[in-house]
Each structure stands twice: as structure tokens, then as C-alpha cells.
Amino acid sequence: MVEQAEKHLWARLLAWCRSLAGATVIGTIVIALIVTVDRGGYVLVNTIVTGGMTALVAMGLALTLGVLNIPMFAHGEYFMIGSLTAYYVFTPIKTYMETHPESILALWGPLVTIIAAMLVGAVAGVVSEVLVFRQLRQRSRENWVMNSFLLTVGLSVLMINAHQLFFGADFKGITGYFSGMPINIMDVYISKDRAIAFLLAAVVVTGFWLFMTYTRTGRAIRAVSQDETGALIVGIGLNGIMMLTMALSCALAAIAGASLLFMYPAYPSVGLEPLYMAWFVVILSGLGNVLGAVMGAFMVALLKVMTVEYIGSGWDFVVPSALIIVILIFRPSGIFGSEVRGVLDK
Amino acid sequence: MLLEVKNLNAGYGFLQILRDVSLNVDKGEYVCLVGPNGAGKSTTLKTIAGLVKPMSGDILFKGEPIGGLPGNQVARKGISFVSEEMNLFVNMTVNENLAMGAYTIKDKQQQKDRLAFVYDLFPRLVERRNQLAGTMSGGERKMLAIGRGLMSDPTLLLVDEPSFGLAPLLTENVFQSLDTLVKQGMTIMLVEQNVTKTLAVTDRGYVLENGRIELEGRSDDLACDAHVRKVFLGV
Description:
The complex is a heterodimer. Chain A has one domain: ABC transporter involved in vitamin B12 uptake, BtuC. Chain A is built from 13 helices and 2 strands, in the order ααααααββααααααα. Chain A has a two-stranded antiparallel ribbon with strand order 1-2. Chain A is globular and about 60 Å long. In chain B, the strands form 2 sheets. In chain B, strands 6-7-8-3-9-10 form a 6-stranded mixed beta sheet, sandwiched between helices. A 4-stranded antiparallel beta sheet of chain B has the order 2-1-4-5, with helices on one face. The chains are: A mainly alpha, B alpha/beta.
């Protein structure tokens, strides 16, 4: 009996490996290992850090697509809000730390900063849902996807210019959350900031996955993304779930913005690069597929890192874009299919 | 009176489908709504379930007005709607779908009891409990849809076209389970195209034509009615 179950598991694992999704994942890992052996461990580290953070932004984007059915082009601006909040919260903490180096803030300051950014991001998400998207939802009769898409573009322009108006167009950055020597793992030096950024991404992605799979509210979010009418029938309030989804996905983007402040200083259009990266991921992994977005994020990150490594740093947007064009032509549903129904099937 | 619908007008956008529909359902009754295609049977159920906004008229459930409430609030009052297209969560397993059906129930023990009740009614679902809803056959999905509707321990079950797209044998199964439910005291309002079968099993019926109630009465009387026989049974 046990043997049979094991055999069954192996058969399923084998079948998954032969499927496009499995083959791509395994292929990515193999390529990552080859590149690491060829060029050194830092390639792997870069891929993992970039991938982890891209995963946060892309997961939020996939969620907005799947649950609210909005092709979100303002998602980068929540990343920007995260980095801006982090800058204004962390600068006073840093000044304080210079005079009080023994303060517990030296250890917890960055965490406080990121949590603040997360909260501001969530509030920004709720505000945009209530003031913008809910209004459109109540009035829109047809062409929801196109209308909401245009609205997000407008929102993006508005937020970028509001940033420029109130906070100026200059780069507001920090040298790093943690000072001190980088960590050395097997001859690869990783700055503490990068290590923490990756750890944070890993914790948030795992926590988010557990939330979506095992909690009543997480299941309700998935239910809404799979069938809105079905969700209404079983008693799930759509407005509440949509507000929560916006809060969550914007908080994810803000966390990414805050934890990458040492790499991307806050400036008005800082969100554009993560936004495009996240769209690459979402198209690659299938619209509205939240778990696939995590895998896709690492693939796009690897592709970017490899491009910089072998072709040159100016090309790191060209290669992923070319891949997206190829995918849109040959497999528009993405590599992982669509775990939740995306915007195109509705 | 469990459900009272008075002079209900409803439709989609500018298109009015229902005109002055009045009907009522008593506790424990098995009532059907029959009529030709496009008569507004499904719209009636959807309006009661809160998926279509009424233009005018009242819907009272246990004496409380529910007309115009959104679907999730109607569901919380104790009305379960099993739609024609089923609206299952296709990427969730049977178990997860049923768990979602009990979304409004907070008590863990009651959730377990409901699950046991549904699995008892549809033993087929037990075998399939870890299968994704989207990969099941039409009959199994119909059972799952009804099962999910029962998970919230509803007072009134609205069932839309349970036989739609099913093989005769499976239709028979579904009708049998509805029969079992009524015998256990459930109140059911059924919309069906299979008029002969429906009038044979239900207590009372309404005939809907062009958005209006044309006839109402006991099901066996309706089955003998000259108009019904001419329009639906072709005799």
C-alpha cells in the first residue's frame, strides 16, 4: 500500500518533470548552476536576491489581475511609495544611531522601517481601491479590462508627478541598512543588506503562500479569483475581499521597495523598472497565477543577471522583452498555464 | 410563509425580463418554476439570490425584505443558490469547494457535521474529495454544486436546471437526492426544463411565460392542464 503510494508520487513527479512547467523549472536550475560554475557564486546570489524581490512585486501584480481583474500598470508606484516611506522613516533612525550606536534600533531599525513602508503601502492600496477602482466598478457596464487598464496608467502618472511635486525629483537613498563587513559564504561575499533582503522575501513569500492556502480569508481570495459569482453565492463579500487584495498586493510591492532602498533610491519613476520586471514575470508564468509568479520571478532574474554577465548591462531589458514577445506569440497562456483564471478568460 | 415575491420586475440593464412576478414558497415545500426557454425562470432565481437587482417589487424571506441585497448577504440569511452553470471553484479540490460552501459557518463542529451530511448524500464525492473540481464529469460537478449549496445549512435551496447537460441516468440521481432532501424537511425551489419529470416530483408549481406567471397550482393538476400539455408536452 505504502509502496503503491510512493510509486504514485514518483509517477506524478515524473509526469510533472516532463510537463512544460517542470521542464522549465528544472532547466532554469540547471542553467543557474552552469552559470554559477562558469562565472562564480555572485551570479547565483544576484539571481536569488533580484528574484526574491521581483517575486514580491509580481505576486501582487498577479493577485490584482486574478482577483480584481485589473491589468495594473500603477503597481510600480506602490514600490515607489515603499521606498519613499522607508527613506523618510530610516533617515532619522540612522541619524539617531550615529549618536547612540548601542541602541537596539541598530538591529531593529531596518525592520521598523520596512514594516512602516508595508503599512503605508497597504493604506495606499486601500485608498486607490476605494477612491478609484470601486468607483469605476460601480459605473462600468462593459469593457472593464480596458477601462481599468487606462485608469491604472492615469493613476501611475498621477503618483509619479505627486512624488515630484511634493518630494522633489532627486534621488533619496541610503548607503545601506546595516553597516559592517559583508557575509562570506564559500568565498562569495554577500552584503548584509542583500542577505536580509532575500531572507525577507523568502519569509514573506512563504507566509503569503500559507495565508492563501490555509486561512479562511486566503481561501476566500482564491475563491473570488476563480469564480466571482460562486464566491457571492457562498456568502463572500466581494468589496471586502477586493479591498484586502489591493492592500495585500500593494503592501508586497512596498516591502520590496523598502528593502531594496539601498539599491534603488527613492525617486519619482523608480517603480517603472520593477513594474516591467513584474509584467515580464506575470506574462511568463501565466496571467493571474500567483504561485507561478514566484518561479517566474527567479527565471526572469536569472535571465537578467545572465544578460548582464554575458552580453552587457545595457541589454538586460532587451533580452527579457524579446522572450516575452516569443512567449506571447507561441504560448500566450504562460508556461504554468493559469492556476487561477486570469484576465483573458473572463 | 418562508419566501414571498410580490410584483417583482427585474432584468439586465434596460432589458426587462420579469413583469409583475408574484410567488410564494412555504416551509418544507417542493415548488417548481417551469416555462419555455427565455421565459425568465433563471432570472427569477437570480433575482431572489441577489445576483440580479430588482427594478421594483418586494422579496420577503421569513418576513424580512431581501430585495436588492447583494448575493453574499442573501446567502447569509439562509438562501442557497445552485446555479445552472454551477460556478464551482474549478482549481480547488472537492473538499476545498465544500469548505468554501460553509464559509458563513464559524463553528468547526457544525462544519464537520455539514461535510458528513453532504458526503452521506453524495457518496460519489467522497471518492473524488482530493480531485480538482474542474477535472470532474458534469454529473459529479452538479452533485458538488448542490453539495456546496447545502454546506451553509440553508433554509431554502434554489436549484437552477439540475438536469442541464446530464445523461438521463445522472439526472435521475440528482432528482433522487433532491427528493431525499425534501423528505428531510428541506425547502426547495426548482427550475427545470424537463417539465414532465418536474411536475411528477414537486408539490406545487408556477408556469412562467414571457416573464409573467401564467398559471399556478398543484403539480399534478398542472400536469393535466390543457394549456401546459399543449405548450410543454406537445399533446
